[in-house]
Amino acid sequence: MLRRFRQNAEAQASLSTRRPAARTLLIPAMLLFVGVLVPMFIIHQFGQNYSGTDKLTARVSRRPEHLAVLPGAGAVSRLGAPAGGAGSARGRHARDAGYSLKAAAWSSLADLVSQEMGGGHVYVAGLPRFPRVFARDSIVSAFLMNDRSGLHAILDLCAEHQGTVQDATTGEEPGKVFHELPGVSLPVARAPGGALRTDYAAVDTTALFVIATHRFAMMATGQMAQLNHDKVALPPQYRPAVESAVRYLIAHLDSDDLFQESPSFAGAADFALAVTYWKDSVVVGRPSGRPAYPVVYTLAHVQAMCALRCAALLLKQRRLEKIADRMRVALMTRLYDAAAGRFHLGRDAKGTLPGHGSDSLHALFYLRRADLTDDEARDLAAGAAALETPFGYRAASAADAAASPNGERYHTDSVWPFEQAVIHAGAARWQLHSVMAVAQRAEAALRAVKSFPERFTATPSAAAGAAYAAAADAAAAGGGDDGGDGDGGGVGGDGDGGLR
User: Fold this and answer.
1) For 174-215, how does the pLDDT look when each residue is reduced to its tens digit (9 = 90+)?
2) How many CA atoms lie within 13 A of 56 on its CB side?
């Protein structure tokens, strides 16, 4: 059955995993690897947050109340831990198999070092299909892995190539951080000449740059335990870039304090990509798959809110915290569906973006504990039950996949292991054990295939039936991690888990 699972998972992955693992790891797939290594790099080793006022607490002799553990016997909170206790059995099973997912991932990563930029610490997205540097993927990867050298290198690259002018072809704006280097040209019907470039086709990278700069500033102190946010110093080499990024973020706020995206900011009528946050393939509910600009993506709004909180600390500007507070009010009054118990995917010029996906759970990673009540967090968890698969949470509901424009399945019918890492870390803040347990399934699936596919197909089919059965078996039997048991709640701080 394991062989059938591997064969079918390979067939369903976006890149063939028949190549050796050292050749199939993407940095979106490296983020998959991060999803497996959450226990080692996020929960087991550190627990910083970005609350801005609370004290950061990492591993200490006592367990801070925010450090979530999975239900059952044993104080374990790593991805490989069993949802119902019996923590050691799964770990023994994995070690007896003689396969180290962690070692395989680190070995594979060496093949992705960019030969053109970054001094050996910047990685291309994947070979052979994506031999380019993606800011989003590299920032999140380095952040989650607690990789100071990798984070330093990608921050340097982002600052060096930060936008300075409006460019309708590339999507460049002053202060904007690039999407991919080098960009590629894609056909766009509304563009002069019929094509646009992808260089700056991302709405979330600038916020991620600011968040990651704050993280790097904390790393630079060498004090990972009980570090007060207010005493984190902005590395002087990044001050101009952070200030420029803040101006970009504020310029994108509308009169309701919603963080909006529009090609008009770059002097254009459209972008090279249909969507400019991480699910960049289609918007469900719009016949063309493209939003009617201006658009507010809820996840990007939350990331921008988090970035301004970080910038308030780095730049010692309380006004930025006040702007973020207004954005939080806008989030809950304009983007939250109280009846459904989840966030809308967003809003565009035609109204609310329909659909149901993983963005609500993903957003937990960037929110403060005080941003949601316990009841609201539990509602998010309950509403996500429809997204569960044997591999983790699918990025969009089955109904959205069925209604996807142009039959798109890349995001609508996929489970992304990297996102399971993010979801797991964010859910830990509210001790949403059921959510953490579902996110853990990604590790079991990756361990079963002994490779790093970018994603798994979410919808069962005749071809994938054996893969589904094996994944379910693996999730139940376990695939423990390669490290020790760890207390911890996630990437994030005042001890409650996620990225602040």
Assistant:
1) 999 999 999 999 999 888 888 999 999 999 999 999 999 999
2) 29
